[in-house]
UniProtKB/TrEMBL annotation:
A GO-annotated cellular component: cytoplasm
Lineage of origin: Bacteria, Bacillati, Actinomycetota, Actinomycetes, Propionibacteriales
GO MF annotation terms: adenylate cyclase activity; ATP binding; DNA binding
Any one Pfam family match given in the protein's UniProt record, by short name: AAA_16
Name recorded for this polypeptide: DNA-binding CsgD family transcriptional regulator/tetratricopeptide (TPR) repeat protein
GO biological process: regulation of DNA-templated transcription
Organism: Kribbella shirazensis
Gene3D superfamilies named in the record: Tetratricopeptide repeat domain, Winged helix-like DNA-binding domain superfamily/Winged helix DNA-binding domain
Residue span, HTH luxR-type domain: 881-946
Coiled-coil region: none
Sequence ranges of Basic and acidic residues compositional bias: 729-740
Amino acid sequence: MGKTRLVRAVCDHAASNGAAVLWGRGIRFGAVDAPYVAMIGALEGWLESAEPSERAGALAAVPAAAELLPSLGGQPTRGTVRLLPVIDGLLQALTSQRPAVLVVDDVQWADLASRDAITYLVAGFRSQRLAVLTTYRDEEVAAGDPLNVWLADLIRLPSVSSLRLARMGRDETEQQLALLLGSQPDPDLVAAVMGRSEGNPYFTELLVEGLTAADQSLPADLPDELAGALLAAWHRLDAPSREVVRLLAVCGRPASVDDLVEVAAARGIGAETVTVALVAATKNGICVAHGAELCWFRHPLLAEVLNATFVPGEAVPIHTAWARALESRTATAIDELRRFGELARHYEGAHRPAASLAASLRAADLAKQLKALAEEAVHLRRAVRLWPTVHAADAQPPDRELDLLERLASVSDLVGDGEETHAAWSRSLQLVDERRDPLRASRIVREAALSEWWSGRRSSQPFEALEQAVRLAEPFPDSTEYAAALAELSVGHNWADSFEAARLYADEATRAAQRSGSPEALARAYRALAEAYERDERADAASAEALRHARLTGHPGRMLLARWARMAYLAPRRRLTDIVQLDADGLRETLDEGATNVAAFHAGDLARHLLLLGRHTEADQAVREGLTLAGDATMRAVARLAAVLLAVRRGDLDQARSHVRRLHELIPNLEHRAGLWAPPTLAEHLLAENRPDQALELLADTMVIQMSRARVADEMVMLSARAAADLADQARDRRDRDGVTRAQQSLEDIVERRRKLEPPPFARITNDDLITPAVEALHAAETARCLGQRGTSTLWAETANRCAGAGMRWDEAVASHRWAQALLTDGASRAAIAVPLRSAYRLADEMSAGPLRHEMEKLATIARISLDEPHPATVDKHDDAPEVFRSLTRREREILAHLVSGRTYAEIAAALFISEKTVSAHVSNLLRKTGTSSRRDVAALASRLGYPPPH
């Protein structure tokens, strides 16, 4: 009737047809969610029921499964994000043997790692025989719950659909009651149930539990609100059992019977009463067993409802009892982390804020040791909240609280909690005393300002705050803070195109950092130096030093900025393969550290560069991983922009539109954010949507803003030419001369705007920069198309060759397509047109670029050219060739292969370096030997016989 029963019915049907069913469920824990609980539960359940051969085959295919599954001795305590491929591998191993259905029931309670795993699996769907079903109750998801963001992102992925179980009407409720009660219910009972349940099948089931079809009404004491419906079954227990169930609710997580007995004893309740209560609660559908030792509520929301039944102060001694039970336990690794997290929650509930603070800090330290940054952030947040209460009477300076706030801000930044980062820095600014501790004040002012800029809370560089940070640290010229403030001020000026000031501050920052000897100061200073001298070869050594010192700090955020500096050196020199390797290394390392916010950036940046190289399959994997990672809006936007580009090039415009909508939800002013590469991506999307006028307008409006990175502006100029050319072509088709003139004038205005900015358009730094000339050639060729110039085939040929030399396979395909179009317009032979056309088609096919491939198929039809490449002929006379072809010579077999592929005499002659006359002579021999009358007949005969065989 409800979501779970519906899914169970589906799974029963699938199982009856040979599918494996893996059932996991979300569980509401206390302060900390253990990673992959839902996924581990599903896999463990399958392992218990699987046939020995099936189980052995899957485990043999994924040896790392032992690191994940408790039944195999595993305990995922480190690098939990890296266990995603283990889960994926196990499911692939299983589905290679038979179809499977993976269920995660009550996903609203699932831990974040399990949700990430679901996204990882769904985003990578190709041809697996796997169905993933998740269920959740929307009434249990409050506004602002992270689940809403997760659901919004998931529903936009391909192959994902949602089924809302709408409230039942009267007739449907009557049918449900007939099934539950065994016969047709009394109409008055139906009306009463409808009034209370409002058509919710779950509440209906609870409301009529224990009733018969003869009953005409619901019990008078049953409440008519959600909480009352949830408490209905609980109210039917006797008083001692109700109290035991409330004790379990205070626990906040599945509890062992032994622990529950200990807590109950502290409340004067005996062990026998606990046993009786659990049996009664289970029979009444209130509690369910979790494994052999744990028990919890069938519907986790009931725990919250029961907690709400305590009057103020009533639950304090119960929290105290649970805390004592936990104090007597010992554990290791993640279990010890969870124990201290639960202790902190129960201490707080017991009105012992000092003990709760101490437990929170201990849990945070354990989480740090386990590289569980998300869990560390959870406990630091509680500690920050409790600190003012515990230390309200302290007469000492707030140094320790500031230490805590700075730590929380740093960790929150790494896991992508932008609001918490901002709040921590804001509180720090209120507490810090510039006169007493100027160095700390310098650091906080600097980091708070940079956080505001990175998060988009301010659109301009925070020069005033950075200059204040420099002034505060200036009396300490050998300090880390002075070097760091100078370095960040240099970077700010570099972004604002104040290159001379950027170099002055970078030079001084480097000298200060060298005096300090601090790895952090040196990493920041060398990063500033590399970016300030980006067009100078000094940036090579400086960026390498920045990365070396950043690694010494061990801080993922420092390493990101250092890699950024290295990329700033490599990018103008267009060393794309080196950049791809940097991003791939960064993605792997930050995932191992649990720094999902930094990892999200690396995944998106990696995907963008792979797309530039035409490595779309690898880009797809990077996009898939990036979309599953938690992060703040800025970092998530990097991955989603790459997703837009990939979807556009594959022709999935619905998906691209979905990603664009989500991007504007994340960052409303996305086009005006520097450093995200947004305008070129959004412009390419608009061009794919056949909206060149809007693309042109977007590029014109954002050109100046994006000049902090000249290579972005150069790509925007090139895309402006493409948009203007598309617009002009449309106007020509309509015989609209004024429209053509407007398109050309718009392009001229954008180019003139770009010429006024520094550095000049398409400026090369080194002779080994092959990409800038390729982008410039694309711009020149698109400009010629906009102007309607004739005889541009040579121009497009040069452009295609430059793109090929730079490794820009996507742009090579686009240019080759235009080259073929120009040749057709120029009246070139089919043999000449076929060369670039087939090359572009092959590239588009390799990249799964559906729209581009379709355009070339249309052009091939117009030009009457076959896009099939000829299969190599079999030349061994003693092969398995059909009898009719065994007398053919080697050359005749080669020519037959070309005929099968539909090539003309001219094309065959060009491919084999012989004359058309010689081709004609060989064809005559082919016809004579095979007894056919024309080249079409012999080609058709060969095709029917499957000869020559493809290699």
